Amino acid sequence: MHPIRDEDESIFERLEKRIDQAAALIVRLKDRTAQLEEDLAEAAAQRDAARQEAETARAEAAQLVEQIDGLRNRQKEAAARVKNLLAQMEQMDLLGDE
Question: Are 86 and 95 in contact (CB under 8 A)?
Fold first, then answer.
């Protein structure tokens, strides 16, 4: 058998070093991927919470619009009643100038 020459040992050492570097890079990339997945999950949760808040706000806004419309209608009805009462009082000459 032929003994391994120094040059061959140097090649194996460089190869081992590159394999170690590649393994370290893979570990860093896996860690980064895990961190990015956590960030993505958090962003998705925040998005879902924001959507829920927006939906709640829309529902509240719709309810407020409905209440405002109801109040406007009541105001119109009250104004019409007051107008009718004033007209009736004028007919009865209760507001007449004497």
Answer: yes
Task: Check: CB of residue 58 under 8 Å from CB of residue 52.
Answer: no
Block residue for tokens 């927006």: 54
For residues 54 and 8, give the distance between their C-alpha atoms in angstroms, rounded to a whole number: 68
- Report the b/e string of 78-91 with b at 16+ CB within 10 A: eeeeeeeeeeeeee
Give me the phi and psi of 93, to 5 degrees please: 60, 30
Q: pLDDT, tens digit, for every residue of 55-72?
A: 999 999 999 999 999 999
User: How many angstroms separate the Cα of 31 from the Cα of each of 19, 37, 39, 45, 74?
Assistant: 18, 10, 12, 21, 64
